[in-house]
Give the backbone structure.
Amino acid sequence: MAQNTKESDEGKFLGDLERPGLVFANLGPNWFAVVMGTGIVATAAATLPVRIPGLHNFGLIMWVISAVLLVALLIAWAIHWTKYRSTALKYIDDPILAQFYGAPPMAILTVGLGTMLLGKDLIGVQAAVVVDWILWPIGTISGLICAVTIPYVMFTRGQAKADGAFGGWLMPLVPPMVAANAGAVLVAHLPAGQAQLTMVMFCYAMFGVSLVTSIIVITLIWARMVFHPMLPVLLVPTLWIVLGPLGQSITAANNLSGAVVNNLPGPFDDEMLAFGLLYGIPTWGFAVFWAVLAGAITIHVARQRLPFGLTWWSFTFPVGTCVTATSALALRSESDFFRYLAVVFFFGLLIAWVTVSIRTFRHGFRGRLFLPPALAAAAATEN
């Protein structure tokens, strides 16, 4: 009888939970990847170098969805930290979940950037600037804290193991790069002179923090894949996270150089613009190489079975940064090659977002994604 009751509950709303209130009990920071993955679709649509009828309105809708999701998750996370504080603190010591504390800052920064690119059409330019000047410092400061705190915890509490490297190790390190890129659009809204110069220099400094640390971690991920067994199936999608710092750094390099030329005219305008291409094109080449490699590994694993989890959102935001990177290179180089590839990558991003969103809704509706991490992983593997 108990078995029949369990089976009948599986199709019900939150049927996998003992009671609906437990939806907040295990709400980890990885949930903010949903906002990241949705927000990057909006910014990718706004920066695509090809005009497509309805694209701008589509991007605006995606920005609204990402903004609503951000507000809802922040409220839900506040409840989680208030009612289930012990669980929230345990996640900091979890070698996997702790890495995803980089997701909330990036979600905030992504929505803030979308506000400047798209939201201004809905709320007005002045309101958009005010909103972004609220979100950008919050995302930047929390991102920098995360970039220091999570590695510190890994180093001092013995979380870092030679066979433990995975794409998630990049999550706490990418927020400063996202902040650098998002900060570029705010330069024009600062007083001319030292204020704009300070903003640009600060953004370039964050660019360096994220780039250098990401290179180190990417090397460790490569070594882990070479010298140790294959990643657990639920972590295989995190290989795509490597595209995040690569694509975001290309976008940031070009947007920051544009901010310098447009707002801080000087004798090095040509050099700054050239940096975006000289850094961006080789890095773009490696990003494409990694995408092919990660794709091959994903297909290899999926042939046996690739169970669904929130790690599937790794197929969205990192790919989205490659779309914005390709668009930035198309704008800077005036190359049709990059322009058309940006469109191809964008439609690939849309396919990924639709696929992952449908699965997230389905598993979230049943409550499976709100189970404790161990139970959620076991349920995903079994079904």
